[in-house]
Amino acid sequence: AQSVAQPEDQVNVAEGNPLTVKCTYSVSGNPYLFWYVQYPNRGLQFLLKYITGDNLVKGSYGFEAEFNKSQTSFHLKKPSALVSDSALYFCVAGGNNRLAFGKGNQVVVIP
Amino acid sequence: NAGVMQNPRHLVRRRGQEARLRCSPVKGHSHVYWYRQLPEEGLKFMVYLQKENIIDESGMPKERFSAEFPKEGPSILRIQQVVRGDSAAYFCASSPVGQLSSYEQYFGPGTRLTVT
Fold first, then answer.
1. In the structure, what pLDDT confidence band is assigned to residue A41 with cuts at 50, 70 and 90?
2. B41 to chain A, minimum CA–CA distance in Å?
3. Closest listed residue to residue B61, CA positions, set B71, B47, B49
4. Quick one: DSSP state of residue B111?
5. Do B104 and A96 count as a contact with CB atoms less than 8 A apart?
């Protein structure tokens, strides 16, 4: 069974600084990895995914994520955070007809 | 081009009543998933359905919960005799194909169920 760990509860970052949200995964077979973002009282929005190919995946709103097989990680990154990036971020692993969600990281971008 | 629609957005039920949550997937999507999100927690998979079939209900509580996705109309998540512990946000998602692993899911805005 697949599982996802997001070790930090909250990530605080100053506006304009780089943003990193950490994620490690455990899956059998080839990993299918996703990042979703959830704004207050809204559903989840897809940001990006890794299926195969380049380890660096670029997604929506300037986000990117780096797949690292040896470290079983899929950290989300943004070079320069915006206040509007403040939200809840979920790392997700796909397999066996279902998705396994991490518990989520609250990102707070401080003006 | 409507996305996933869920209604109602907010639902208040007294203990013992029934709750019916509806989900209309993205047009053309025949695979629907239901998730529950408890406060301060991530999403927990409940059930995966295709038209007229339940594919995987391993995340559904054994009692009081049921789901369907009829040939016509929305998918329905039904909770009978609700208890306070059922209070949560329930999200529906859809995808264009099954064997989902490599396909992103499209999420609805959720239904927030409050049991009083």
1. confident
2. 5
3. B47
4. E
5. no
Please judge whether B42 and A101 are an interchain contact, meaning their C-beta atoms are less than 8 angstroms apart.
yes
Region B75-85: what's the mean pLDDT? 97
Residue among B17, B16, B33 at smallest CA distance from B25: B33
Residue B104 in this model has a pLDDT that exceeds 90: no
Mutation for A interface: B38, B47, B94, B102, most A CBs within 10 A: B102
From B107's Cα to the closest Cα of chain A, the distance in A is 6
Give the phi and the psi of residue A51 in degrees, each rounded to 5. Answer: -115, -50
Distance CA(B14)–CA(A69), nearest Å, equals 49
pLDDT in tens, A51-75: 888 999 999 999 999 999 999 999 9
Interchain contact, A94 vs B102, CB within 8 Å? yes
Residue A42 to residue B109, Cβ atoms within 8 A: yes
Banded model confidence at residue B99, pLDDT cuts 50, 70, 90: low
Q: Is the alpha carbon torsion for B69, B74, B75, B78 positive or negative?
A: negative
User: Which 3-state string (H, E, C) describes A8-46?
Assistant: CCEEEEECCCCEEECCEEECCCCCEEEEEEECCCCCEEE
Interface contact flag, A97 B91, Cβ < 8 Å? no
Looking at beta carbons, which residues of chain B come within 8 Å of A42? 109-110
